[in-house]
Amino acid sequence: MEKKTCYFCGQKMEKIDYKDAYLIRRFMNSQGKIYPPKRHGICTKHQRTLSQAIKRARVMALAPFVVK
């Protein structure tokens, strides 16, 4: 099985903006949970920053805590 490359490393993105709702929703499932890093092949560094961005977006009401 081939190892996936990190999306953010491939795009050369240093910062993950919590205001970019479309990008953040891409890494969340239909229930609003954060996907594990193996699902999309994200490196550890970017998984940490992504989870912080998702949590900030939830507090700012840009992403849902729970989806009904």
Count of individual domains: 1
* C-alpha end-to-end distance: 36 Å
* Strand-pairing-aware structural class: mainly alpha
Give the CATH superfamily: Ribosomal protein S18
CATH class: Few Secondary Structures
Query: What is the percentage of strand-forming residues?
Result: under 5%
The value of Rg in angstroms is 12 Å
Number of strands: 0
CATH-defined fold name: 30s Ribosomal Protein S18
Task: Report the principal-axis shape.
Answer: globular
CATH architecture: Irregular
Overall pLDDT: 91
Sketch the major β-sheet: none
Note the total helix count: 4
Give the uncertain stretches in residue-range form. none
Walk me through the structure.
- With 68 residues, the protein is an all-alpha fold.
- It has one domain (7-59): Ribosomal protein S18 (30s Ribosomal Protein S18, Irregular), CATH 4.10.640.10.
- Helix content is 43%, strand content 0%.
- The chain contains 4 helices and no strands.
- The chain is globular and about 35 Å long.
Secondary structure layout plus pairing:
Blueprint (H helix, E strand, L loop, with lengths): L6 H4 L10 H5 L11 H4 L3 H16 L9
Which features does this protein show?
0% strand; 30s Ribosomal Protein S18; mainly alpha; globular; 43% helix; 68 residues; 4 helices
Kindly summarize this structure in a few lines:
With 68 residues, the protein is mostly helical. It has helices spanning 7-10, 21-25, 37-40, 44-59.
